[in-house]
Amino acid sequence: MAIVQQTDGRWKVDVEPIKGKRFRKTFKTKGEAQRFEATCRAKVINIPEWSPTPKDRRKLSQLIDRWATLHAHTLSDGEARRRLLDALVKELGDPVAINMTGNEYAEYRTQAIKAGANPKTLNNRLGYLRSVFNVLHQLGEIDYSNPLARVRPLRLQEKELTYLADDQIEILFSTIHSYCRTPHVAMIAAICLATGARWGEAQALTPDKVRNQLVTFINTKGKRVRSIPIALELEQQIHRHFKLHGQFSKCLNSFDKALAESRLPVPDGQSSHVLRHTFASRFVMNGGNILTLQKVLGHTTLAMTMRYTHLAPDHLQDAVKLGPVTDYQHFLTIITPTR
């Protein structure tokens, strides 16, 4: 049906010049109706915005390919993230991306948990996949919204960040000296312990980045260069080490083996980070400012640094000072049963 006269004498236009684009309108005269029909057909042909875009039928793997081409190279872990995403696509069955729903993804996650998947790993996967959709939408590669936008990460129990006592630090370095063939392990561990640096940041140091009682870390996780003060004695020791043994080599595996041999109570997954946690914990316990610690550690958000605040000597002391019980001698008397 294109133009039809109604019982009241008016003329109704009902035209669909292209699939998915339909126009309906009623006019007093047949001439007006004909002109409207002609205009609709012409605009669909001449104005691209009037033509409906074909539905995006690309599979998830194809979107991952485009994300890798357009964005992965800007990330320090782009290659590793691509491998993780490729594995996730296989587990999801490589669906048509636009057809994905939050409900279906939640079902996949439920099955993965039953199969023994680590909840933190599942949260990482969700975050990476959501990022793919967000980035491609921002770049105009896709024109539909993120289908996983409303899927919430799993709520995880916060883990205690382990730090080493003085005697444990001695045990660790004694074990390193006994079991590690390369001398670099002890020196890198000492830098991490003295500056709160990540292992990879300390391992990448070169002599020119250690001067004026400062160590300067580049190519950091947060993409920001930062300089941390160190003692003169440590600076001199680092330069002696470079002269005797040359540039640091990759030796994290050697540290991991020494840490395991030391039998220190370090939870799985913390490894060399125990040195970073030890620096941060001691810094806070000795009264250090949390904002200063954020800059030293290179955290992009204060929330990450706030994990250490419970170690501050005055942390939550108002709970004792301002709580309902002020006279503890009397309080202990009334809660003690009488005989």
List the helices and strands and how they pair.
Elements (H helix, E strand, L loop, with lengths): L2 E3 L5 E8 L2 E7 L2 H17 L13 H11 L7 H15 L9 H13 L4 H20 L27 H14 L4 H12 L3 H5 L6 E2 L2 E4 L8 E4 L2 H14 L6 H11 L10 H13 L4 H8 L4 H4 L12 H4 L6 H8 L4
Antiparallel strand pairs: 1-2, 2-3, 4-5, 5-6
Q: Helical element count?
A: 15
Integer average pLDDT: 86
Biggest β-sheet description: 3 strands, antiparallel
Which CATH architecture of the largest domain? Answer: Orthogonal Bundle
Separation of the first and last Cα atoms: 99 Å
Describe the structure.
The structure is a single chain. This protein is mainly α. The chain folds into three domains: 3-50, no CATH class; 60-138; 166-311, hpI Integrase, Chain A, CATH 1.10.443.10. It has helices at 30-46, 60-70, 78-92, 102-114, 119-138, 166-179, 184-195, 199-203, 232-245, 252-262, 273-285, 290-297, 302-305, 318-321, 328-335; strands spanning 3-5, 11-18, 21-27, 210-211, 214-217, 226-229. Strands 1-2-3 form a three-stranded antiparallel sheet, with helices on one face. A three-stranded antiparallel sheet has the order 4-5-6. Strand 2 (11-18) and strand 3 form a beta hairpin. The chain is elongated, with a radius of gyration of 32 Å. The termini are far apart.
